[in-house]
């Protein structure tokens, strides 16, 4: 029956070719008439936070196959280390985030009609372990090869106003010659344009290498989230439509802050675009409660105050908190009242499109060694490390308050300095930083960063976590070596830099911060200079912009420039001269999605 069926199909296809040729529409009919086809689905089998196993389940949906191949693009830093029932290209271990082609082994190329089989593999990863957007299956059989096709991922993108978004294109199978693929914007929101990759060329050598097309949305004041279809096409192939939507950011649209996750060395928003934390610190939640100043040192935390920030193009606000005020062991307001104030401000920021970064600034535990800010046991100053007595309880409470809202970022501890307590013994300092316990020079039991990560994740919260290094978060030299384990894969590094710090020059930034930023996202949780000028932070921001590093300046409080590092003279957002003026001018040129 199969012989007669294929003969009938070839005869019908030949007749159709003659008819199409009469209308000038003849195409490569040997590809179109193929009866061979297959489908494939990807499923993760196990995952321990740094390694994983996956299966690709394949089904022959057409006539018997003489051979087959699979293609997929890893969206993150996944690496295949071992594969069975298939042979990957590139060979194992594959490069991180590679476009992978899988061919059959010597014994499983031939598959009957309706056959199903599984290709399995093990691998490793850093950051997020997201599945490929799809797996393409190409099949060859007695009826000819499966039709060439365009592989486009993703087919729906959000383009931030004034920013960019992208998708990738490759071919499903190897062509016999060069193939040109064009991306053309259709009718719709004219703000969205193809800014790079409008014409791509694929050869017999690079056909399986994904190439990028970049879309841009113009900055305007129309307050419209328009759409525009982008046609991805090549002569003789079925076109693919990418649906592009402009994400408007004009005041008044009240778009919420994006949910965030770590992907490789970038923060990624829920629209799939990379995102940098660009903004300010709003101090007082760490001290006002213990100094009889109420909650926010009498400053406003309402929508008008947030609008004043947004007029500077501020997209992130870091909020220092007091451990004992949160859990109610000291200070006024304390406990439930303090927690509610924090929740209200964080939720107001999110609802108005600003990313909140909540962090533990002051904590319990007596310390009188090098760098001590006070001799108090209570949380009235910066201590060298979090305390084991209360810090896990604090972070359990904060995580429970904001889990499920991944627009909120957790900064576990402001400025660790256990190295100073250990008389600048780096090994002792970094070991204390990660593991806690009894630490040299610190009289109280320490909660290490690993224990605090564990406390957050035990609640089910998957929020991105920031971790500052040693030397008051200025030293990231061994951050990667001592990086805690995170089952959610959502850790990033926090870095603080002022003109009086040790690591305050480009050479140090390149060697220390740049090395970390090449592997995980980095954001400078505090930048500043104590001279009221902005020449130092100008250098910091220029370097950070070039390396994909975010920054939040100290501080959005009208305390007078005589104290240095003060951005405003009032909560209406009037900048100080010249520190605030310089920071504002630079921030207005930046886009968090760039």
TrEMBL record:
Signal peptide range in chain numbering: 1-28
Catalysed reactions listed for this entry: Endohydrolysis of (1->4)-beta-D-glucosidic linkages in cellulose, lichenin and cereal beta-D-glucans
Enzyme nomenclature, EC number: 3.2.1.4
Source organism, top-level taxon: Bacteria
CBM2 domain sequence ranges: 31-140
Alphabetically ordered keywords of this record: Carbohydrate metabolism, Cellulose degradation, Glycosidase, Hydrolase, Polysaccharide degradation, Signal
Keyword Ligase among UniProt keywords: no
Keyword Hydrolase carried by entry: yes
Leading EC class: hydrolase
InterPro entries for this protein: CBD2, CBM2/CBM3_carb-bd_dom_sf, CBM2_carb-bd_dom_sf, GH, Glyco_hydro_5, Glyco_hydro_5_CS
Protein family according to the UniProt entry: Belongs to the glycosyl hydrolase 5 (cellulase A) family.
PANTHER family assigned to the protein according to its UniProt record, in alphabetical order: ENDO-BETA-1,4-GLUCANASE A (PTHR34142), GLYCOSIDE HYDROLASE FAMILY 5 DOMAIN-CONTAINING PROTEIN (PTHR34142:SF1)
Protein name per UniProt: Endoglucanase
Organism annotation: Nonomuraea angiospora
Lineage: Bacteria, Bacillati, Actinomycetota, Actinomycetes, Streptosporangiales
């Amino acid at each position: 029956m199969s012989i007669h069926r294929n003969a009938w199909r070839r005869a019908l296809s030949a007749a159709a070719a003659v008819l199409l040729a009469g209308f000038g529409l003849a195409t490569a009919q040997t590809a179109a008439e193929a009866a061979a086809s297959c489908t494939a689905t990807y499923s993760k089998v196990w995952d321990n936070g740094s390694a994983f196993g996956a299966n690709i389940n394949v089904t022959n949906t057409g006539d018997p196959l003489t051979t087959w191949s699979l293609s997929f693009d890893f969206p993150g830093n996944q690496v295949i280390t071992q594969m069975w029932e298939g042979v990957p290209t590139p060979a194992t271990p594959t490069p991180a985030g590679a476009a992978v082609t899988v061919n059959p082994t010597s014994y499983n190329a031939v598959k009957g009609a309706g056959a199903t089989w599984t290709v399995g593999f093990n691998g490793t990863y850093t950051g997020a372990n997201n599945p490929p957007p799809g797996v393409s299956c190409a099949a060859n059989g007695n009826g000819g090869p499966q039709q060439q096709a365009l592989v486009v991922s993703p087919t729906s993108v959000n383009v931030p106003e004034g920013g960019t978004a992208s998708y990738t294109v490759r071919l499903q199978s190897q062509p016999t010659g060069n193939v040109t693929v064009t991306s053309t914007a259709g009718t719709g929101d004219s703000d969205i344009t193809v800014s790079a990759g409008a014409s791509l060329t694929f050869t017999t050598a690079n056909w399986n290498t994904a190439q990028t097309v970049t879309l841009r949305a113009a900055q305007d004041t129309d307050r419209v989230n328009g759409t525009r279809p982008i046609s991805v096409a090549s002569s003789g192939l079925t076109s693919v439509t990418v649906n592009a939507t402009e994400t408007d950011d004009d005041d008044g649209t009240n778009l919420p802050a994006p949910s965030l996750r770590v992907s490789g060395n970038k923060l990624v928003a829920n629209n799939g675009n990379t995102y940098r934390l660009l903004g300010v610190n709003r101090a007082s939640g760490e001290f006002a409660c213990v100094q009889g100043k109420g909650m926010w040192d009498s400053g406003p935390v309402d929508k008008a105050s947030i609008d004043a920030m947004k007029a500077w193009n501020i997209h992130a606000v870091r909020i220092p908190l007091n451990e004992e005020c949160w859990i109610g062991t000291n200070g006024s307001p304390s406990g439930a009242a303090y927690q509610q104030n924090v929740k209200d401000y964080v939720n107001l920021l999110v609802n108005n499109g600003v990313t909140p970064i909540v962090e533990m600034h002051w904590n319990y535990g007596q310390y009188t060694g090098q760098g001590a800010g006070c001799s108090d046991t209570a949380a009235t100053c910066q201590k060298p490390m979090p305390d084991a007595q209360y810090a896990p309880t604090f972070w359990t409470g904060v995580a429970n308050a904001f889990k499920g809202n991944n627009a909120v970022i957790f900064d576990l501890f402001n400025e660790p300095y256990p190295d100073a307590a250990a008389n600048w013994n780096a090994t002792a300092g970094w070991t204390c930083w990660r593991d806690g316990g009894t630490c040299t020079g610190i009289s109280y039991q320490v909660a290490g960063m690993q224990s605090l990560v564990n406390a957050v994740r035990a609640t089910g919260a998957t929020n991105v976590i920031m971790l500052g290094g040693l030397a008051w978060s200025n030293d990231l030299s061994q951050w990667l070596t001592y990086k805690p384990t995170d089952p959610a894969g959502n850790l990033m590094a926090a870095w603080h830099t002022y003109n009086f710090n040790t690591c305050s020059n480009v050479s140090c930034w390149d060697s220390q911060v740049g090395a970390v930023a090449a592997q995980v996202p980095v954001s400078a949780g505090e930048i500043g200079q104590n001279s009221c000028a902005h020449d130092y932070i100008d250098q910091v921001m220029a370097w950070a912009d070039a390396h994909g590093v975010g920054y939040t300046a100290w501080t959005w409080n009208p305390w007078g420039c005589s104290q240095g590092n003060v951005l405003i003279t009032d909560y209406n957002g009037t900048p100080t001269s010249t520190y605030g003026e310089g920071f504002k001018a630079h921030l207005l040129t930046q886009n968090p999605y760039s």
